[in-house]
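Example S7 (structure tokens).
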């Protein structure tokens, strides 16, 4: 009996030791499995140099559309327009060269035309239009400087162009209204430097492109155009002294009774200049 009890105790100890050993082995394996499971998500993050480069590359690609819009905004905010409201209260008929080194001369600045129905002087309309255009362009983030903000000035056409040059304007916009002997003549137009004019050879292409974009915008809204709306001129000192892209807006004919009234209608004038501003913004963004 005593031998049986001793044998049973030995067997019990042996079984217990075996179970403890197996349990320890199982726990070690389980812990290893758990540790490997915890590490798995880190491996899935692709932390290799190639993976990091790929992630950086994707981050750079995502904001392309935003970057494009931001770049366009930056272009507009750094884009400077010089607006010249044509003429002034008193003409200056002294002569000045038509261009640098030219023997030919022209009046420094003339009085302009007068509304056949309204009796409004052109220089008044030109400033009204310039103020509206300035506000519209500034709302689009474009910077604007003016050659004049009142009528009581004495600034020649050469001096007006030199103001645009000194300010390093991206576009020089001269604002005028037209006149003709035939009162039936009407329509908006844009004058640009001549292609073969030696004074404006360097600025012809940009000037033409700006004028073309404005005429396109105006024609889209079915405003009456004079001819095709775009006319080259080589005899304007305000063009020939300019070293920056330059255009001249002819808003319409003040010698046409109906168009004269329209040009003094604030809504009509603002709507027309809204299209001009859109064309300028197109040019600034191109």
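Recovered sequence:
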């Amino acid at each position: 009996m005593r031998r049986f009890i001793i044998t049973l105790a030995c067997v019990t100890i042996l079984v217990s030791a075996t179970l403890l050993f197996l349990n320890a082995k199982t726990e070690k394996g389980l812990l290893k499995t758990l540790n490997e499971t915890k590490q798995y998500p880190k491996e899935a993050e692709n932390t290799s140099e190639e993976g990091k480069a790929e992630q950086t590359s994707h981050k750079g690609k995502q904001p392309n559309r935003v970057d494009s819009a931001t770049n366009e905004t930056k272009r507009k905010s750094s884009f400077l327009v010089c607006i010249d409201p044509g003429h002034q209260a008193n003409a200056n008929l002294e002569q000045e060269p038509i261009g640098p080194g030219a023997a030919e001369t022209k009046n420094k600045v003339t009085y302009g035309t007068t509304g056949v129905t309204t009796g409004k002087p052109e220089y008044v309309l030109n400033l009204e239009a310039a103020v509206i255009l300035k506000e519209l362009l500034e709302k689009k983030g474009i910077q604007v400087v003016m050659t004049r903000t009142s009528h009581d000035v004495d600034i020649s056409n050469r001096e007006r162009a030199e103001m645009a040059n000194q300010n390093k304007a991206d576009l020089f916009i001269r604002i005028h209204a037209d006149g003709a002997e035939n009162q039936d003549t009407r329509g908006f137009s844009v004058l640009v430097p001549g292609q073969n004019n030696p004074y404006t050879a360097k600025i012809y292409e940009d000037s033409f492109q700006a004028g073309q974009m404005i005429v396109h915008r105006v024609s889209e809204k079915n405003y009456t155009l004079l001819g095709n709306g775009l006319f080259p001129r080589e005899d304007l000192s305000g063009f020939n002294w300019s070293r920056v892209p330059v255009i001249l807006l002819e808003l319409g004919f003040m010698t046409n009774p109906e168009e004269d009234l329209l040009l003094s209608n604030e809504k009509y004038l603002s709507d027309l200049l809204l299209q001009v501003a859109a064309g300028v913004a197109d040019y600034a963004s191109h």
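Notes on this example. Residues 79-285 form a domain with the Aminopeptidase fold (CATH 3.40.630.40).
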